[in-house]
Amino acid sequence: MPDSSKPPASKKFDLINRGERKPTLWGTLTFVGLRILDLPLQHALLLPMGLGTTLLTKLGITLSGTPVGPLSTGIPYLDSLGHPTRALLMLFALGSSVKQIYWQLFVSKESFPAPAAAAVAFYNSLFNALNALLFLAYATSSVRSLPQLPIPASLSITRLPYDLPLSTVVGICVYVFGITLEAVSERQRRDFKDAPENAGKVCKVGVWQWSRHVNYFGYSLWRGGYTMVATGWIGGLAVGSWQMWDLGYRAAGVMDDYCTNRYKEQWAQFKREVPSKIVPGIW
């Protein structure tokens, strides 16, 4: 998950106080609890005739009319969703919660006050919920995305043939790569900083040689891939691009201020060695 720092009040905004390492038990409990609670929320939204369908119907929004299963994954919690993409979105919500809970419990060492923890958890749950609703709505659902790949019954988890949008395949790959990249980058940085000989040094190992904020790149990718599976090409590209823009100008600006102040010439040298801020070789 993208980490951040406390900016100068007049310039930039963020939620976490970079460099402050006071224990924040209530913040951790808040974050972990809310990320766990996101899972039954997403399941309720994605269920056939569930919360999402009810909400959209009350708002007068036409539903996508996705065919209902039966799915045959062997996992009742997923099979009850009745459509491959609904199950994928549920798995994506699970993956994001597991990854972010791991980050908070085993990777991050900075203070995370309860209000900030609640805000970050709410943001991620809101984005997940919007993806579920956009998939269920006819006008924005990826079921209409082209081109589509015919899946024969012999390969189908519904035991029936169906058409799988190419954007869904691409979105899965982008999500998996992005969330893996974010997790690996955070683990590499933690291991680097845990080594006594690296005290006071800038992390330049592994994927941190790709770009200066490569974890933000990973987060943007999996957020974009998540939305691409829900809505198709345009939604996925729009969300991924917006996340990169936001993190590149807001969060990366916060980090640049903090690292310039802490590492001084080391940070200036790192910027010369790794000119890419977010996207390796591009930006």
Order of helices and strands: HHHHHEEHHHH
How are the strands ordered across the major sheet?
1-2
User: What proportion strand?
Assistant: under 5%
Query: Which class best fits the helix and strand makeup?
Result: mainly alpha
Kindly state the mean pLDDT as a whole number? 92
Fraction in helix: 55-70%
Shape: elongated
Could you describe the 3D structure shown?
The chain has 283 residues and is mainly alpha-helical. It is 59% helix and 3% strand. It is built from nine helices and two strands; from the N terminus they run αααααββαααα. It has a two-stranded antiparallel sheet. α5 (114-136) runs parallel beside α7 (214-231) and α8 packs antiparallel against α9. The longest helix is centred in the last third of the chain and has 31 residues, at 233-263. Mean pLDDT is 92; it is low at 4-11.
Write a concise keyword list for the protein shown above:
mainly alpha, 3% strand, 283 residues, two-stranded antiparallel sheet, 2 strands
Secondary-structure map:
Layout: H1 25-46, H2 51-58, H3 76-79, H4 84-107, H5 114-136, E1 148-151, E2 162-165, H6 166-194, H7 214-231, H8 233-263, H9 265-273
Helix pairs in contact: 1-4, 1-5, 4-6, 5-7, 6-7, 7-8, 8-9
Compact description:
The chain has helices at residues 25-46, 51-58, 76-79, 84-107, 114-136, 166-194, 214-231, 233-263, 265-273; strands at 148-151, 162-165. With 283 residues, it is mainly α.
